Amino acid sequence: MREKSQVDDIDRSIYDIKNENLDEYSVGEGLTPEIVRKISEEKNDPEWMRDFRLKSLEVYHSISVPDWGPSIDGLDMDHIVTYIRPNTKMSAKWSDVPDDIKDTFERLGIPQAERESLAGVGAQFDSELVYHNVKEEVAAQGVIYSDLESAMYGPYADMIREHFMKLIPPQDHKFAALHGAVWSGGSFVYVPPGVKVEIPLQSYFRLNAPGAGQFEHTLIIVDEGADLHFIEGCSAPKYNVANLHAGAVELFVGKNAKLRYSTIENWSKNMYNLNTKRAIVEEGGTMEWVSGSFGSHVSYLYPMTILQGNDSHMEFTGITFAGKGQNLDTGAKVVHTGARTSSYINTKSISKDGGISTFRSSVVIGKNAKKSKNAVSCQSLMLDSISRSDTIPAMDIRTKDADVGHEAKIGKVSDDAVFYLMSRGISEEDARAMIVSGFADNVSKELPLEYAVEMNNLIRLEMKGSIG
Amino acid sequence: MANTKELVVNALPSKTWYWLKINDARLSVPADVKELGPSIDNKDEHVTYKKLSLVTEQGEGKESPAFWRNIKTGAGMEGDFITGSQADLLIQKAGTETKAPVVLHYDYDKTGAYGDRLYLYAEKDSTLKVVVIAKTKGLDISDTSEKELNGSLGALQTRIYTEEGAKVELHMLQLLSEESVYVSDIGGHCEEDGAIRVTRLELGSGKLYAAAEVDLVGKRSDFTAEIGYSARHAQKYDMNYVARHRGRKTTCEMNVNGVLWDKAEKVFRGTIDFICGCAEAKGNEKEEVLMLGEDVINHTIPLILCNEEDVEGNHGATIGELDQDTLFYLGSRGIDPETAKVMVAASKLEAVSQMIPNGEIRKLVDEFVRGTTEDAEL
Q1: Ordered DSSP codes for A310-370
Q2: Which of A284, A301, A318 is the last residue in one of the domains?
Q3: In this structure, is residue A133 part of a structural domain?
Q4: Which of A17, A155, B167, B360 is the least buried, fewest Cβ under 10 Å from its Cβ?
């Protein structure tokens, strides 16, 4: 009997470390104006922010749950704790972080990465940042990398107020409104004009508490002619209750500036990942997204770019791996409003063991986006017939002066390719493993070496099975 | 408004963001839509022609209304709004082939609301060929002036069933006045080795709702759609095509070629649905949109839904003006860019009309192309 080779699930044991009794304060389950006020008090919000939170809560209650994507029936907001403070204050010294928390991040490789390849690191544990540091030479260039809350009281207070939730208004969708009401933690980055940050900054988000939500807000402003690579990582241990991630990422890319935003998302499989990411790009600017989605029970994730400035450019490179019990609805959105703007979306998705992967995209080219170009390429690999893979791309083109191309392919591991490799002496098992790993190359080659290795670890695909 | 019904038609099989406004289309129709009844030319000796009563539930198999109701159509349940009491049923005898296509003319008045049902049945190993010409009576094709909707409606619901090894070729030309709304909805079912081939040219009507859904149930069954369209002035075309692969080794090919002029607007939804069990199925979908007007709007949403590992699905879309290489090539032969664009637009429609084995259609398309291209303002 011939048994088919099999691609195993991602080995998650390193991410499933659970820390107990590390939390000092929690607002309790549910979502009420009182809870929102408590969070606001905890955060020592300025008055405008408190009002903003309460207004967002009203908006949240007025918007219905989306019915076009994966079901989120298992998410009961009455049983989600929206704010949990760990038993430590934020520190710029790694030695000041409590041992248990430090140990978790050590195992995830964060401090080592900071020493070897990062210009700065932020580490968030549940609702609060526990560590934030930026290298002296980077700080000396005028680069600001801090937690968002303290930045709100510093010299950048007006800048934050001017930009906070302007790209992602609470009215945008239900979980943007939820974020506006209960957001906590996250980072603020400002790169001054002309400054090129040679090595990346990274924020790592760890959600440790069962039944909790994480709502960090990342606000990055890359000023004219500046250049930044920002990396975001996230993970959580698996629990039997639903956890929720509804973060927001707002990116402002200035004239002729460049921002690369890389994410390796590996939330646990009880996580509802309802994250919103959006960038606006000014004249001649470039926005690059690199996105790997491996975790979560349910994901809604479609980074959006508004190419507002003439000659601005966007590239999105993504991979999604949906295994057992996962329904990952991912993709990208781009809106061209400036002339001669260009965008390229290149995604891969893998479905196995009953996993559901959906690629969803929208390309909007406005009437004034003359001579704009867009290309979308999405490829899906089905590893068995109990899984599902859908592609749902939409194009809305409002000028004749555009050049839009789209291609999508769906299929299985090619028998011809397996045969070719086997004819070179490679076993069927290894041949299939090579093809599946190679399929993910579009993302791994876009990451710095250390992170490509991390990603490859994440998708360590053990090929098993007897042949014959 | 009294005496009208508001309907939701052409729904996308899997919804996406509401803000894109392409999940479905809204259609307002009069509460009473009378039958027009086609005039039929080229009757074939191997084809049986019947009027099937939809009022009683009598009859068996293909001669019962229930048999046909089970075939889903692309417009969806609400697209079944026609209030008439009968359907035209054409049955191709087993093992035979239509010599020259049977031609059905639907000539609509300039006012009024008319709707018909057409059921096509191909018995085992037969081939039924049908041409449908839908147009407004007395339409002056050379009159290219812009017109506003006047409340008139034409509708045709076509349901197709192919037995084992049978094939139905359906060629459709739509040339209604811009004052009219036209709804053309197809549903199909293919048994083993059955095939449905649809060729459509959409050239008229102020608003068009065109749809098709074909259920590829039998092994090796096939659905091919060759669609050409031209929309000008403020015409709005809304199209929804779905191929559902259920049987093993089923195939589908959807090719869509269109031209948008002036401020015309178009939505094309095309779905290839691989259902678990359709191993070795293949589906391809391709759309090319030539945008020639300053204010045109194009929506394209090509879906692949896949619940089977062993399949191949592809879709591609190219949207924009004429590419620079073609312009350069034609320019090097002394053809200016504006003329080149008109030539290519005309060739897109002619390429589809050439697939239709009917001289009358080709003549009408030639006349239409001449009028449109001479009037073109680029």
Answers
A1: TT-EEEEEEEEEE-TT-EEEEEEEEEE-STT-EEEEEEEEEE-TT-EEEEEEEEEE-TT-T
A2: A301
A3: yes
A4: A155
Dihedral angle of Cα A196, A200, A205, A206, to the nearest 10 degrees:
-160
Q: How far apart are CA A34 and CA A25, in angstroms?
A: 16
In a domain, A56, yes or no: yes
Which pLDDT band holds residue A4 (cuts at 50, 70, 90)?
A: very low
How are beta strands A372-382 and A402-411 bridged, if at all?
Answer: parallel
CB contact under 8 A, A407 and B305: no
Q: How far apart are CA A98 and CA A385, in angstroms?
A: 47
Chain A residue with Cα closest to B310: A412
| Domain-located, residue A110 | yes
Q: Which domain holds residue A84?
A: 4-301
Residues A151 and A28 in one domain: yes
Distance, in angstroms, between A202 CA and closest chain B CA? Answer: 31
Strands in B292-351 per DSSP E: 297-306, 311-320
Domain edge (last residue) among A301, A332, A359: A301
* Joined tokens for residue B239: 């199209």
- Determine whether the interchain pair B317/A409 forms a contact, defined as Cβ–Cβ distance below 8 Å: no
If asked whether residues A284 and A419 sit together in one domain, one would say no
Contact partners, residue A282, CB within 8 Å, separation at least 6:
A224, A253, A254, A255, A257, A308, A309, A312
pLDDT at B224 over 80: yes
* Rounded Cα distance, B103 and A152, in Å: 75
β-partners of residue A203 are A122, A232
Tell if the CB–CB gap between B319 and A408 is shorter than 8 Å: no
What's the pLDDT tens digit per position in A88-141?
A: 777 777 777 777 777 777 776 766 766 666 777 777 787 777 777 888 888 999
What is the predicted pLDDT for the residue at A383? 86
CA-based max dimension of chain A: 71
ipTM, 2 decimals? Answer: 0.94
Is residue A184 located within the same domain as residue A55? yes
Tell me whether residue A373 is in a domain. Answer: no
Confidence (pLDDT) at B115: 95
Say how many domains are in chain A. 2
Residues A295-313: pLDDT tens digits? 899 999 999 999 999 999 9
| pLDDT of A153 | 87
Q: Which of B309, B324, B344 to mutate to test the interface with A (most CBs of A within 10 A)?
A: B309
H/E run at residue A306: strand A304-307
A408 and B20 within 8 Å at the Cβ level: the answer is no
Judgement on whether residues A94 and A236 belong to the same structural domain of the protein: yes
* Least CB–CB distance from A382: residue in B302, B306, B323: B306
Rounded to the nearest angstrom, the minimum Cα separation between A188 and chain B is 30
Least confident of A39-48, A245-254, A330-339, B18-27: A39-48
Residues in chain A closer than 8 A to B309 (CB atoms): 382-385, 387, 412
CB A221 within 8 A of CB A195: no
Chain B positions in Cβ-Cβ contact with residue A360 (cut-off 8 Å): 16-17
Helix, strand or coil, per DSSP, at residue A95: helix
If one counts every other C-beta atom within 10 angstroms of the C-beta of residue B87, the result is 21
Rounded Cα–Cα distance for residues A315 and A329 (Å): 19
Residues of B with Cβ-Cβ distance to A432 under 8 angstroms: none
